[in-house]
Every structure is written in structure tokens, then in C-alpha cells.
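From the pipeline queue, job 12 of 40. The input is one protein chain; the requested action is below.

Action: predict structure.
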Amino acid sequence: FAQVKGQQSARLALEIAAAGYHNIILSGVPGCGKTLMAKCLPSIMPALTFEKSIETSKIYSVSGILQNLGGFIKEAPFRTPHHTTTVTAFTGGGHSSLPGEMSLAHNGILFMDEFCEFPRHIIEALRQPMEDGTIQISRVKNKYLYPADFMLVATMNPCPCGFYGSTAHNCTCSTA
């Protein structure tokens, strides 16, 4: 985060968000550094407590990916699903009812770059887990309740062309 130059207001907002574990959305023209700042955010996040490390490691263990990460999660997860991800991969479920991106981001950051590119059903799927800190996956014979307490960090352009409000480029979008 120390390598980020300029953008004092955005830096301050991200520092406050990290300190209080607040969700944040960064909006600005292409190339202004939104994604860079968001990707640097883990470097200023508070360290995981031992209890949170255990809790996070359990989720990764159930997912079958803990062994690939050294057997114990010591740092807050930083998950970056692509806007083309399926709702099942995002929320969890599928044949084995495994945790999805929201649970894998538990005790860490769920980063949604180009937020407006995500389909509406993915964005709607955020609502209940963000309120409750858990996500329930219901199947014919079983119900699974996974933790999903994450900090949502999103970036977006102010309009489809990206240059609304820019002093360097003209916005080509209609007023509608």
C-alpha cells in the first residue's frame, strides 16, 4: 500500500475501511488506480487472530484446497472472482455442496473488479450473506451453513464508457 502514490482521498477511505472492516466501492475513470489500490489493501489489513485462522482453515479444508496453501491459513483471504463466474461457484453448492467464493473470502476480502459487469443474480446473491455473515446452501437431503463474513471491495467505472466526470476525456454515453 505504501507504493501507491497520489489518490489521497481514496487511500484514506481504504485505510478507514481496512481498520473498521467496512465494505467499500471505488468509482473512477479507467486507469486511475482503483484496481491497484484494492489489490494492495491486504497489506494494511489487521492480522488474523489464531481463532480466525482456524475458522478460515476449516473452510479451505472442506473445499479441499487447504493442502495447496500450506495446511494453515495465516493471512486474511483475498478472493477475486471473475464477472463470468457461475452463481454456484460464487455462492457455493454444486454436486458436493462445497463452499463458494463468498465463504472462501470469510475473514478476508471479496474483491469484485468491474462490479457493474457482474450479472444481477450474482449481485443479488450478496445480500443475505452480507447481512447474516453466513450462507445457507439447501439441497434435497441436506442443508449446509457456511460462514461468509467478508469485507466487500468493489471497483467500477462511473458510466459505460468510463469517462463521466473526467477532465481528460469526453464521456460518450447518452444522458439516459
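Job complete. DSSP finds seven helices and eight strands in the chain.
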